[in-house]
Amino acid sequence: MNPSKSTQGIHMYKYIGIDISKATLDVYDGLRSYKFTNDTKGFKSIIKLAKEQQHIPKNKLCLIFEPTGVYAYDLMRYCQAHKIKAIIVGSKVARDYAKSIKQRSKTDKIDAKVLYRYHTQVDPGSITIPMLDDQILKLSQHRNIYEKYQETIGRFRNLIESVNKNDKALMRSLERQINALQKECLRLLTEIEKIICSIDKNAMHLINLQTIPGIGKKSALHLLIEIIRYKDTTAKEMTALMGLDPVLRDSGTFKGKSRISKQGGKSLRTKLYLPTVVAIQYNEHLKVFYERLVSNGKPKKLAILAAMRKLLIMALAIVRNKEVYRAPC
Length: 329
Known about the structure:
By secondary structure, the chain is of the alpha/beta class. The chain contains 13 helices and nine strands. The protein folds into three domains: 124 residues, Nucleotidyltransferase, domain 5, CATH 3.30.420; 66 residues; 105 residues, no CATH class.
């Protein structure tokens, strides 16, 4: 990027850092710190602050905040409704940036200042108005609850292994809990499918994804959730979002081995593992790919991870091209 253009871009906007909590917003505008309520009244106060005290019009304002779950949704909706631009900084990115500027203390006021300073790291051309899709949001919430139930089922099963098998009453109690959660998981999975199929052409995409050898309905659902969540990403960006992008660490005479980054997307990586193991047995294309890596000396675990990445890219192509799976010639 041309430094002069970048510098000009930075000064195009009035940046305001906002640390969001359940009830309040800690705000820093580059000069002073403020505290407002986390509601429409507080959002209007931020706009008023920029307009009346610093004569900044709404279209020259850029808010910087973390997507702190439900606490950030109202602010995102307000930005969307009033066409206010924002930089939404992932929690890990914000933590890493704070460390990079040697900010060790952590309070809401300090976090707002750190977020304000983060604007120096952003290409102004990438700043956009936040868009919150309520259908995608509903889908993500259902999926999150489904996964929590699955984790709880796993914990109950571990408890069954650890308790005295002669304690029949306790065993029955644990089994009842597992059965109840399994029924709820099935209900949630059905609801997730209904939500997915109500959006655009996702019913067709869901069927098309299942034409990939090794991918069943449940795996297709989880793949499709991620693909529609990140609908504008490239294949390279998608693999990075799912933590399947290869990274290499070398330093001086030390030569590291290539491995996946594991930055984000843990849930999908877990759910892709078994379908990939099946696919490298029954999907001829993936089978050849996997066996070639192993024959070239790659560890089997690394070869499976590479096959997972390839499977994700296949799924992305099938959805983007609106077609069924076709084995490469």
